[in-house]
Specification:
Helix content: under 10%
Number of helices: 0
Distance between the termini: 41 Å
Strand content: 35-45%
Structural class: mainly beta
Largest sheet: 4 strands, antiparallel
Shape: globular
Number of strands: 6
Oligomer: single chain
Strand order of the largest sheet: 5-4-3-6
Amino acid sequence: MGQEQYVEWEQFTGLKDSVGKEIYEGDIICQSDGKYREVCFKSGSFGKGVDFDFHQIWGDDTVIGNIYENPELLKP
């Protein structure tokens, strides 16, 4: 028998970071203030960390990883 694989689908936000990389749900971004935040989807909108507002300023943010491959980036 083959080994089972688990696949986690990430939703595209429709936005790009400061270097033109697409931003997906589950990505970890570095904000212009140096803080790392997870991109989340809740109640019909995307947000950073605990804030859920699709209209936040995203242009200065940079994707540095995601919660599946780099969870250590969000540890205090």
